[in-house]
Amino acid sequence: MIRAKKSLGQNFLIDKKIINKIVNTVNIQNKTILEIGPGTGNLTSSILVQKPKKVFVIEKDNALANQLRLTFKDKITVFNEDILKFNEASLSKDKLIVFGNLPYNISTEILTKWILGFDENCWFDHLILMFQKEVADRINAKFNTSNYGRLSILSDWKLKVKKKFDIDPASFSPRPKIESSLLFFTPKKDFYNINSKNLEFITRIFFNHRRKMLKKPYNQIFNGNKIILDKLKIDLTLRPQNLDTETYFKITKEYENLQS
Ligand code: SAH
């Protein structure tokens, strides 16, 4: 009997219907799959039914990793490692489809690592990831809404994001306290050619005071420069959440032009 470890965010999916719904969000026949945090292998089994070409899994828990090797034998390749330290981009020549029921305390860190880690030639075709609902809503938020912020802008920079469905705590064992959501990501072929550090810097300054007018952060960055303001066509009496993502990419570009 495997006891769930809280420290590793172990909430195992037990609802067969939900598991199949997750796997069926995309055709994986003959595709190369990477699963993060396979746990007891419930999702892994459903993945294998769809006849993928190859399945890699990364599981940090030693006991679970050993169990997975015994259960699935040569049907999967198990890495007993920490995803935060793993170099997944060089796993395969094939583009990967990634499934992950991630531990919620590291889910945004992993997503950020993956967003920052690719340029034109992305190593994955899709990411199909579970988040706590509240975080999923922030990732997926549009401008002019209260959930919109740094995470939405960073995600929208390089990824197309689609919310698939919510998942009830009862679908897991042990039950988490919160609702979850499944997000489906596809890398964009074209995105603004800006430095991620600068984008993070700009959004940090702008979203430092969510309820204050844009005037303050604008002046802090551009020293009141009117020419740039005319070019960007921003109304400085608005709030940070009123600017769409593209405007933030343009602001970052202007900031970079000033540095060079
Ligand atoms: N996908 C499984 C289990 C989800 S629970 C299911 O749906 O049934 C999260 C899983 O991630 C656990 O198995 C946990 O051991 C693993 N995990 C936690 N931190 C990890 C890390 N840093 N790298 C890889 N796996 C991790």
Can you give a write-up of this model?
The structure is a single chain. By secondary structure, the chain is an alpha/beta fold. It folds into two domains: 6-187, Vaccinia Virus protein VP39 (Rossmann fold, 3-Layer(aba) Sandwich); 196-259, Orthogonal Bundle (Helicase, Ruva Protein, domain 3), CATH 1.10.8.100. The protein has ten helices and nine strands. The strands form two sheets. A seven-stranded mixed sheet has the order 4-3-2-5-6-9-7, with helices on both faces. It has a two-stranded antiparallel sheet with strand order 1-8. Helix 4 (107-116) links the parallel strand 5 and strand 6. The chain is elongated. The model has no long low-confidence stretch (mean pLDDT 95). The structure holds S-adenosyl-L-homocysteine. S-adenosyl-L-homocysteine binds at residues 8-13, 36-40, 42-43, 58-61, 64, 82-84, 101, 103, 106.
Helices and strands, with pairings:
Layout: E1 12-13, H1 16-23, E2 32-36, H2 42-49, E3 54-58, H3 62-72, E4 77-79, E5 96-101, H4 107-116, E6 124-132, H5 133-139, H6 150-158, E7 159-167, E8 172-173, E9 180-187, H7 196-206, H8 215-222, H9 226-232, H10 245-259
Parallel strand pairs: 2-3, 2-5, 3-4, 5-6
Antiparallel strand pairs: 1-8, 6-9, 7-9
S-adenosyl-L-homocysteine is lined by residues 8-13, 36-40, 42-43, 58-61, 64, 82-84, 101, 103, 106.
